[in-house]
């Protein structure tokens, strides 16, 4: 993505005063529990607060010279029921967030693929499988191991250009006074 931005929009990047990052050969990775410890958050915290993400971003820059940091192994309680647990310790999941300059940019993870595991995960959360019947029926036909991720494009752009607020880079920003485009 960055190579394409450099090639196709170099002049616009310069005009915007954006500083394009260099993606390191290996992005540093930190387990969620270690990230909490590093920022001094309680061990039972279910997610990283924005100030934690900012502190981790500064830490990654200082320790590794990297604008990127992957935090893996989020608590199962925080992730959707279909997120695959880490083998050997189901408190954690095979999931991650990619932080860019101290802001969550990408969320992703491995998903369950065995039909029975979906039902077990729903039962563990006290969810009624009937509410998910169409989803469960689709998964009953078999699914190979798989995963996915989603990138926050506006978050990416806001960090690239150093915007104070994400609404500055959003085509139709929404707030309390503007709910529709």
Q: Can you describe what's shown?
A:
With 181 residues, the protein is α+β, with helices and mostly antiparallel strands. Helices cover 35% and strands 20% of the residues. The protein has helices spanning 2-16, 32-39, 50-64, 115-124, 133-139, 153-161, and strands spanning 29-31, 68-72, 85-86, 89-93, 95-100, 103-111, 146-151. The radius of gyration is 19 Å and the shape is globular. The two termini are 28 Å apart. The model has no long low-confidence stretch (mean pLDDT 92).
Shape call: globular
Helical run tally: 6
Name the structural class.
alpha+beta
Sheet with the most strands: spatial strand order: 1-2-5-6-7
User: Can you give the helix content as a percent range?
Assistant: 25-40%
Distance between the termini: 28 Å
* Mean pLDDT reading: 92
Strand count: 7
Q: Sheet with the most strands?
A: 5 strands, mixed
What are the secondary-structure elements, in order, as H or E? HEHHEEEEEHHEH
Low-pLDDT residue intervals, each spanning 5 or more residues: none
Strand fraction: 15-25%
What's the Cα radius of gyration?
Answer: 19 Å
């Amino acid at each position: 993505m960055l190579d394409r931005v450099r090639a196709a929009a170099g002049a616009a990047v310069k005009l915007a005063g954006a500083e394009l990052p260099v993606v390191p050969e290996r992005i540093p990775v930190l387990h969620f529990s270690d990230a909490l410890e590093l920022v001094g958050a309680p061990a039972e915290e279910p997610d990283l607060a924005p100030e934690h993400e900012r502190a981790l971003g500064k830490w990654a820059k200082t320790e590794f010279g990297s604008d990127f940091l992957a935090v893996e192994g989020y608590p199962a309680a925080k992730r959707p029921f279909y997120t695959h647990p880490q083998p050997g310790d189901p408190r954690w999941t095979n999931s991650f967030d990619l932080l860019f300059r101290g802001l969550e940019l990408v969320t992703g993870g491995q998903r369950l693929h065995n039909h029975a595991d979906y039902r077990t995960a729903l039962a563990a959360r006290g969810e009624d499988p009937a509410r998910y019947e169409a989803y469960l029926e689709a998964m009953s036909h078999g699914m190979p191991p798989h995963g996915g991720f989603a990138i926050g494009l506006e978050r990416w752009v806001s960090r690239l250009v150093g915007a104070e607020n994400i609404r500055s880079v959003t085509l139709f920003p929404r707030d309390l006074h503007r709910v529709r485009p």
